[in-house]
# Entry
Amino acid sequence: MNHSEAADKFNKDFDRTTWHDETLWWVRQKRDRAAFAIPEWEDLRNTASQIKHNVLSNLDTYLIEFEKNAKANGVTVHWAADAHEHNQIVLSILKEQGIQQIVKSKSMLTEECHLNPFLAENGVEVIDTDLGERIVQLADEPPSHIVMPCIHWKKEEIGVLFHKHLGTPEGCADPSTLTLAAREHLREKFLTRRVALTGVNFAVAETGEFVVCTNEGNADMGTHLADVHIACMGIEKIVPKRKHLGVFLRLLARSATGQPITTYSSHFAKPREGQQMHIVLVDNGRSRQLGREEFRNSLKCIRCGACMNTCPVYRRSGGHSYHNAVAGPIGSILAPNLDMTKNADLPFASTLCGSCSNVCPVKINIHEQLYSWRQVLTKSGHSPTAKTIGMKAMAAVLSSPSVYRFSGKIGRLTLSNTPFVVNNSLNPWYKQREMPEPPKESFGEWYKKNRK
Amino acid sequence: MKVGLFIPCYVDQFYPKVGIATLQLLEKFGCEVGYPANQTCCGQPMANSGYEHLTHDCNRLFVQNFADFDYIVGPSGSCVLHIKEHLHTEGEGEAKATHIRQRVYELTEFLTDVLKVENLSAHFPYRVGLHQSCHGQRGLHLSQMSELVAPAFSKPEKLLRMVDGIELVQLTRRDECCGFGGTFCVAEEAVSARMGVDRIDDHIKNGTQVLTGGDMSCLMHLEGIIRRRELPIKVMHIAEILTAN
# Structure
């Protein structure tokens, strides 16, 4: 199902669409309040954008510096060219340990690489420990939002899900009770799993350390109790120096949820005694994107989700309509790099309103890249033939003043005299909207009579 | 000052009264206005659909029509933005295209920034809700954007405040997109219509009698929904209000 079809389905439930829109808009407003409390907000965004610019221009150097320092800290560093290699590396570490059960905190990279199904096929059970991720995992769904994975679920529905899987009382939708049940359920997993996998929010080249941000402390619970910590990161997560974290940590949570900072911003530098620590550095198309000048800046993304919360289309179509690990505006400029054919619809799932670029904490020109992807996709043959024929016809009419004037007149006459030709179910405009009332004369015709 | 009147294709065909009001405004403030009869379209419908490579002839035509004016003014932020960002031609024409890109203005910014209009002598005793069209606002910066931590301003609002008897409605979401989006309105019909419904709902809840804006395309979409649902709101382009008496 492409975005438009999925969105059409989503919109069949009018009230639920209202609820989804208002829930996300509420998060956007929280972001606004947090941002407006910082007078230097726009300077912070500029600074973050420029630091990332430097990172992308010197990514090779910073990655090697990071690897050297991480190794010196006693961390094992792996390099993965693509999703497949990433998944194999994780599996090989688990096999070496003879492990078949792990806990995992939030990592959009592992979603991108489809690690969970891969491990399941190989007999490894993965328990997602972020509450929202655990909910969608129990429901056998992918996350619909990168920061709030189950934002499309109502608490009553979570109550039903938990009753089935965790044995909470039937009909219970009290968030405290449900959360407590999840805590107890997860506690047993934390205590018994020997391998914990986490994502990485920032990796510091200067020190070889990395930072994992969560609100639930689940990454910490997992890693502190495990013998082996595997951290998976996209190669663009690098920042040059530790001091730069101050800029990004101030922006991340404010942009994401309107909090001043994530509840836990944990720095991992070296394995504790007896523990193993692995970092998997993953490319999976990132160096290809780095080579595309007009799309390079998309790699600045720090995965805050602000562009989704502000996107009027995302709010009214839901994360799953984007059929990609990262949904919304940022997902729509990242996904075509992963697979142009499969994701050719996504850059068109936007009105190009530009709100996404304005909330982006690292100032990615998202809406301009959406426009550019449309051109790239069309030129590389990823556009439906009927659309190409229509566009060529339109261009032909608009290229000739006399044909344009003639067609305009015919169009207006048709609307006046035989409106059923236009006003029917084959015209998507007419489904929920009236056509404009055709005037007797065009402006051009009026001008000819009245001014010259 | 020679001003080229740029009337977007759909305004020409469906909303001649908007073109007339724009012309009257420019003439009222002493501009020597010319309307090149051979103009058609800025090319945006193709470009936004991923077919910018099919807009060469539209670009060539636009340059032919407008190269000789001091300023080019149109009553549509979206079309003006497209010209400003994407008008290019091959060879010698490029210098002319550059001149146009630098001299093309949306109507309200031309009135406030170039003509420095302070008085309008217009009268319009209604509660008016202003729809901030995205390309005008976020593209041409006609108004401050709600996402940015920056001082507030609004060029269209400044002009509307000069109109006698007008009462401006405060919206709950002051600059959310209406969902028109060019071919988006048919390609993503469900979301587009829903966005329009929500925008109109905001106006109704806050007491708008007349919904206005600087982009007739957004207004055409909103008006289509209003008429289908038989809602008690009238839709007018800002030029019609600024010339009302």
